[in-house]
């Protein structure tokens, strides 16, 4: 397997970080997970680039002049074709602040790593879902971006495994629905698509952004809201979505969602791809 590290293609086994790396010590960076088609072209690249640059700006990390959308697009295609030839690839682009300082950085330049591997799509429904009790989200200047500190989702994952659930939904500190462990949350009622507001601390997901822009094409109105879990009791269709696709959620605790979710998922998949 190959990777790109600061613009140079190397064997992935050659990559290493020092004990002083700010990504290693402080989680001081952002990343994007990107799915390509079989030709290596990244889906929704413009949205990924926009979120990446916004996240870097929020963290005040400065990239080199050569680090442009066109440059990365070419590198992603090259790497995907090498590591995952003729199949869809899962690409991770991570950018972090250069070494220096303790909590206070001594410089704001960037190191970056680009990886790619064959993508394994998730197919299926989430039959059992729980609400996270061990961790809650809170909105911040960086909460909408995918930072290198993923502790809330790690702790939520441990809780999900402990209760043998298929999925877990996180809430914010006020108890509002926020997102799934690794996907945004959506529900449909009366031809309206609902999704939690970014004020809950959820990620500004690529699928979320796409649905907000294109819901009208699916015959839906859109509302971004702060809502308590009880709102789902009167909902027929609930699903999660990320760059890998969308998946139905069938049950949360004792609430069953029996709407025609497969039809909705099929429709979403057709438009999304």
UniProtKB/TrEMBL annotation:
GO molecular function per UniProt: lyase activity; transaminase activity
Alphabetized UniProt keyword annotations: Aminotransferase, Lyase, Transferase
GO BP term, pick one: carboxylic acid biosynthetic process
InterPro entries on file: Aminotrans_IV, Aminotransferase-like, BCAT-like_C, BCAT-like_N, Class-IV_PLP-Dep_Aminotrnsfr
PANTHER family for this protein: AMINO-ACID AMINOTRANSFERASE, P-LOOP CONTAINING NUCLEOSIDE TRIPHOSPHATE HYDROLASE PROTEIN
Family membership: Belongs to the class-IV pyridoxal-phosphate-dependent aminotransferase family.
Protein name: Branched-chain amino acid aminotransferase/4-amino-4-deoxychorismate lyase
Source organism per UniProt: Flexibacter flexilis DSM 6793
């Amino acid at each position: 397997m190959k990777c790109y590290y600061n613009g140079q293609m190397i064997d992935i086994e050659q990559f290493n970080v020092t004990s002083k790396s700010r990504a290693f010590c402080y989680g001081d960076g952002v990343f994007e997970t990107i799915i390509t088609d079989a030709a290596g072209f990244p889906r929704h690249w413009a949205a990924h680039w926009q979120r990446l640059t916004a996240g870097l700006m929020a963290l005040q990390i400065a990239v080199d002049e050569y680090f442009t959308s066109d440059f990365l697009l070419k590198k992603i295609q090259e790497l995907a074709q090498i590591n995952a030839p003729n199949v869809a690839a899962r690409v991770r682009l991570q950018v972090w602040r250069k070494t220096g300082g303790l909590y206070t950085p001594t410089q704001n330049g960037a190191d970056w790593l680009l990886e790619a591997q064959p993508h394994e799509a998730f197919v299926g429904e989430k039959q059992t879902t729980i609400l996270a009790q061990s961790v809650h989200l809170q909105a911040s200047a960086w909460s909408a971006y995918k930072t290198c500190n993923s502790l809330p989702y790690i702790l939520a994952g441990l809780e999900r495994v402990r209760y043998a659930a298929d999925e877990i939904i996180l809430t914010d500190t006020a108890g509002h629905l926020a997102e799934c462990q690794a996907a945004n949350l959506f529900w449909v009622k009366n031809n309206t698509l609902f999704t939690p507001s970014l004020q809950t601390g959820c990620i500004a997901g690529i699928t979320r952004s796409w649905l907000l822009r294109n819901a009208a094409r699916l015959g839906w109105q859109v509302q971004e809201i702060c809502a308590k879990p009880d709102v789902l009791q009167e909902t027929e269709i609930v699903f999660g979505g990320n760059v890998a696709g969308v998946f139905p959620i069938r049950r949360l605790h004792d609430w069953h969602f029996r709407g025609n979710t497969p039809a909705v998922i099929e429709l979403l998949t057709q438009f999304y791809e």
